[in-house]
Write a sequence for this structure.
């Protein structure tokens, strides 16, 4: 297995409300399996699945809706390593390589965390700075890089 194969292909989303761009608040959700850990929705890309297809499938699986519009995409794959405790459950992977999208919820979107396999117990929309202060520490460098890119491009 090559080093590249040790990173699970993944899609992640920074979701803004349907009040965007007037309000530039970001959706974060509290995990149901790690105490007080907040993150952006994300998930694996299935074999043969297109990245955007995975984006909307994961959105539906994690927050109960796929009623959203892509605003922008981070221009490259970005990777992070799992902390040792999480890595034990993710073998053979040592981390994830992700494609990030900035997406806006449509007015008709209804967030429902009680999905078939719930991953989150709570959610909120917060400022960009609050999002960075409240999210998982091992993903911090990825979140900062992606958010700074969207800020520099004028999206956030």
């Amino acid at each position: 297995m090559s080093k590249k194969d040790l990173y699970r292909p993944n899609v992640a989303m920074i979701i803004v409300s349907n009040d965007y761009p007037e309000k530039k608040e970001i959706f974060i959700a509290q995990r149901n399996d790690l105490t007080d850990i907040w993150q952006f929705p994300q998930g694996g890309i299935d074999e043969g699945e297109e990245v955007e297809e995975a984006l909307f499938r994961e959105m539906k699986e994690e927050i109960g809706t796929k009623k959203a519009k892509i605003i922008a995409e981070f221009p490259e794959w970005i990777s992070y390593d799992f902390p040792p405790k999480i890595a034990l459950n993710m073998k053979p992977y040592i981390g994830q390589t992700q494609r990030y999208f900035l997406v806006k919820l449509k007015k008709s979107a209804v967030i429902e965390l009680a999905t078939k396999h719930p991953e989150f117990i709570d959610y909120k929309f917060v400022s960009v700075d609050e999002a960075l202060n409240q999210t998982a520490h091992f993903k911090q460098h990825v979140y900062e890089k992606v958010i700074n890119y969207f800020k520099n491009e004028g999206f956030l």
Q: What stands out?
A: The chain has one domain: 4-152.
